[in-house]
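Progress report, Aim 2. The chain analyzed during this reporting quarter is listed below.
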Amino acid sequence: MAYCSWNGSEKYKDHFSDVGVYKCAKCGNDLFTAKSKYSHHTPWPAFTKTIREDSVRKEIETEPQESSNAKAMKVFCGKCGNPLGHEFIGDGPNNSSRF
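Predicted structure tokens for the chain:
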């Protein structure tokens, strides 16, 4: 199982904007729009959907994360394969996914 750590340097967690695109840090691929971002209790930005279905590639997470009952998918950039974190199924607004 993959675990994430937070070092307190996430500068976009509390940054909300009506415009803008979040891109892959490695290749610049468009991943999420600012309009799909929402406030969440985790220290990382949270999004409800990707820009395009092929913006990311997903793999089944072998176990649910300890901090959530939601099942998770590992998420990678759809262009270069850079690891981006997880999609938590049913853990977003109105039981949607949370990226």
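The longest strand covers residues 72-77. The two ends are 17 Å apart (CA to CA). These observations will guide the mutagenesis work planned for the next reporting period.
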